[in-house]
Structure formats: C-alpha cells, structure tokens
Structure prediction request, 356 residues.
Amino acid sequence: MIKAVYFTPIPSPFQIEFVETINKSFTDFQLVLVFSKSATHDRKHWNAKYKGIVLQNRKRHEINKILNQENPDILIFSEYNTAFGLYLMYWSLKNRKDYFLGPKEMFLPGSLVKSFLKQKLFAMVAKHAKGIIAIGSQALLQFEKLYKGNITSIPYSFKLDHLLAAQRTYSAYDMRFLISGRLEDFRNPTMGIKCFAKTVALRPDMNLQLIISGTGSLENECLKLIKELNISDRVLWLNDFKDWYDIHSIYTRADVLLSLQKHSGWGIIIQEAMASGMGVITSYNLAASNDLIINDYNGFYVQYNDQSSIINKMLAYVDDKSILNVHGERSKEIVKTIDVCKTSVAFVDFIKRNLT
Prediction:
C-alpha cells in the first residue's frame, strides 16, 4: 500500500470527490486529504461535508503531528511560495520521502518582479520533486520551462453523470444567457451585462433572459448597470442553493454561458456548461477553454474586451439554435474525457510511475 498525504489550502467539493474516487478505486494506493481549518469558514456557501484531516494551524508542530501520525510514503502539495510549502519540501528531503508538486494552475499575470520571484521559488521547490501535476496544457507549458523532470496535465474534475443526463428545463424564453461565478473585476461581469443589453436592443421581438449567479465586490455596480440599461425585467438572479452540487442546476436552466474573464486559472465553469450541453462564449484567458473549446466547433472564442465580437457570437446562437444544439452535443462528448473517474486513474498512474 502506497500512502500519500495531500495538502490543499482549500478543500473544494470536487477535490474531496477526487480523493474519494481514488480511495474507492485503488486497493494499493491511499490518498489522505489535509486542509486548513480556516477554509471551512471561508467557503460556507458550498455547504460541503469536509472529509479529511483538519489542520488547526499552519505551524510546524501541527504539521509534524499530522505527518508523524500518518507516516506517509509521499507528500503532495501545491504551495511553493509560502513558508508552509517550503517546510513541506524541507520535511520531505529531511525524511527521505518523495514529494510531488501540484495539482497546480498556471501562473496568473502580475508585475515583472512578482512574476520573476514566483518562478524562481517554483523552480527551487520543483527541483527535488519527483513530478509535477499541472492543471491544463497552459500550466504544463509554463512549468516545463522551469522544471526538466516528469510532468503531466490533469485538470480539476468531478463526476459528470448528473449533468450529462440532466434534462433542460426550457421556459417561454427564446434564449437564456448565463453569467456564473464571483462578481469580481477579473471575471468581467459588466461586459456580459452590456453585451446582453445590446443583444436585446438588436432583437427586440425576441424573449431573451440573462441569469446571473454569483456575488462579490461588483454586485452593486452590476445592479446599477442593469437598472441604467433598463433590462431589470430580463435579469434573473439565482444564488439560493442548498450546496455546491445544487449550484449545477443553473446550467440546466440556461442555454449559453458568457465566460469573459480578463484572466483566470482553470475555470471549472467551462466543463460544467459543456456537460450540460450549453453553448459557450469564452475569452482566450481560461485554461479550460484552451483545452476543451474548439472555436466554431463546440463554442466561440472572443477577446474579453471586444464588445462587437461578443455580441456577434451571441446573435449567432440567438438566430440559429441549431448551432447551439450541435455545439452542445459535441461538448458533451469532449468533456467525458476528463470525468473524475478518468482523471483519478491518470493521477495515480503518474505518481506510481515516478516513485523512487
């Protein structure tokens, strides 16, 4: 039995599902999840059942207590630019334990100095790792420049069956667009609202609706903008969910996802929309889009600030629903390749192949 301890700062429901899938699927490999206590308070809206070992604090004595108790063969962690991550590397080397870095998303944009320091720290921590698990091909390409060892790309995922099998609940609306996720500047929600308003003006006889699911620092700005554009009667806010899995219900109630991020990590909303058979209009800045969306095959690419292009793609779906159906069916087939049952096997296989 190979025992690996996986440290994660935020135990998202799909990470918990990933760990559970591995532990149910393999008799010779055990993955122990360790996460910070603070994370359970920061993500209360998930209403998740956290399963794993709770790290009461991030001090050395607490880390040592857990590691001595679990006595793992391997450590897996994604933090490389904190004292916490550096100590996990030190502990692994001191105790002659293999460690793997990841799963890790691509570096996000930053100042030249910050980017330089991040890359230097990453290279230092990666140097002695037995392998790196990147989240998406963009992250893989970034990391390959800094690390010459074993590396693979395994994205975030979850069990897609319920979304793939879900029946769409069509209403009287001719088409329903969706903005999903935190209402923060990098997600660019105001651009989606402006483009929706102009699409309505261009097709005044059509019954179009915008669903917004999310909260954040731009919520009041979004509300003000909706009122100014006189589209309040066409906007539906959906934020009352029982838990993380209930959030998926929005994808069966909408037709087209507007994902216009200025920058992003992986972006799990893309595969959620794809599994639901939605149309997707996305910027180039999501790693999931780059790996899973083929322009004009199962979705549309746009520049996040190109209002004209975004509106044209919205109209393409509005004016010809056959495009929506074709894109949706193709997306369902593509996204099946990264169901958690497949990614968990790839993860364990990579770890086993690269042990000392």
Residues 191 and 305 are 7 Å apart (CA to CA). The longest helix spans residues 112-126.
